[in-house]
Amino acid sequence: EVIRLIFETAGKPYEDIRFSFEKWPEYKPTAPFGTAPFLQVTNGSETLWLSESASIARYLARKFKLAGKSDEESAIVDMYADQITDLMDQIAKIFREKDENKKKEDQQKLDNEIIPKYLERFDQRIAQSRSGYLAPSGLTWVDLYFFNFLDIQGNKTEAIFDKFANIKQLDQKVRSNPKIAAYLKRRPVTPF
Amino acid sequence: MVTYKLYYFNMKGRGELIRLLFAASGQKYEDFRIEKNDWPEYKAKSPFGQAPYLEITNGKKTMILSQSVAIGRYLARKFGFAGKGDEEQAMVDMYGDQISDLLNEFAKFMMEQDETKKQEIFQKLQNEIMPFHMKFFEAKLAQSKTGFFFDSGLTWIDLYLFNLLGLLGDQRNQLFEHFKAVKNLYDKVSEHGKIKAYLETRPETAM
Q1: DSSP assignment string, A113-144
Q2: At a CB cut-off of 8 Å and minimum separation 6, what does B109 contact?
Q3: Across the interface, which of A33, A50, A82 has its CB nearest the CB of B90?
Q4: Which of A78, A141, A146 is the best mutation test for B, with the most CBs of B within 10 A?
Q5: Measured between CB atoms, does A61 come within 8 Å of chain B?
Q6: Residue B86 — very low, low, confident or very high, per pLDDT cuts 50/70/90?
Q7: What is the pLDDT of residues B105-149, one digit of tens each?
């Protein structure tokens, strides 16, 4: 979704191929590492195939000027993105956990300890940037990535927004960006 | 003038990629190794309470960066090891993410306390996960004209994979039997002038 959000925010047209799980085996052979998402970039007679969502996101963000205004800022943006990926990986790990007791235990720890700890730091960093976004220069792809992370928290977001005012504001800023608002209205509704 | 200070433990782990980049570039830096007992003090200074983190000072301005790959990519850009052009850099990043996946799987194995589980994870790592990832690296490296991942020359992911293979210890010899281009990469990085000198003088650590 971060890839879609980048295209939408930049106003760049793209073909958004969505395949069902049943159709995946047809597409898998063309994916660089047999994983999705993957992006096909065609420029004249040349085609580039990219996988790994963060790498795709960073590439597009650079092209569309959503990567930060300097190498230093881009590095900070990358750092934030890697932290969010760590959280996403932990969510995915729990999702795959077969042992029901461990699953509950890990979920509790994630929700009550780990996520709040990171959110607190993010909240502070947003306050420090003074732009209302994670980076001082304004909206970058990591705001979209963070927005998506919050979005998939479902009914937990209310508690998060109650506790972290700067995060709540960032979410609202992203949501009310005209291009993103328009996209959110028309995108397919999916649980995850 | 820019000065750099790296904060990490006295081990290779996730910090060594950064040390290797400094070595390859010849850029001087302070290689601060945190004692385990002192960690709480440094944890508080780190952006997200984790190490490695890098303190970059340029005149009056100081920036602190964490997340080893974010640091690696930033230094690689500065030192010319990021790949040539946006498209190649994106592909470098893509392979870098794959190496990170593998490193995370290996870290899981290293951190497992339960002996039975540890053995299980080891088997899966050795029989499935390692070969699965190495296959992609082998395919890319076998195509290369330079023996590095990309024809344009050494990039940070060559160092990243080199470090991961180093962490495997003697286990890597088994891998090398099946993955010749990967072995070739390991040897090439070992013999790279500035890196060879660094390898000869760096502290010996188990991990």
Answers
A1: IIHHHHHHHHHHHHHHHSSSSSBTTB--HHHH
A2: B118, B121, B122, B125
A3: A50
A4: A78
A5: no
A6: very high
A7: 999 999 899 999 999 999 999 999 999 999 999 999 999 999 999
Query: What is B86-192's CATH number, 3.40.50.620, 1.25.10.10, 1.20.1050.10, 3.40.50.920?
Result: 1.20.1050.10
The pair of structure tokens assigned to B105 is 């799987």
Specify the CATH class of B2-79+194-200 in words.
alpha beta
Closest in B48, B87, B91 to A83, CB measured: B48
What is the rounded distance in angstroms from the CA atom of residue B66 to the CA atom of residue A118?
14
CA distances (Å), origin B193, targets B26, B28, B29 = 11, 16, 19
In this structure, how many other beta carbons lie within 10 angstroms of the beta carbon of residue B84? 14
The alpha-carbon radius of gyration of chain A (Å, integer) is: 17
Cβ-defined contact of B63 to A76 (cutoff 8 Å): yes
- For chain B, give every domain's residue range: 2-79+194-200, 86-192
Read off the pTM.
0.95
In whole angstroms, give the CA distance from residue A55 to residue A61: 10
ipTM for the predicted complex comes to 0.94
Smallest CA–CA distance, residue A185 to chain B, in Å, is 31
Nearest CA in chain A to B50: A83
CA atoms within 13 A on the CB side of B56: 17
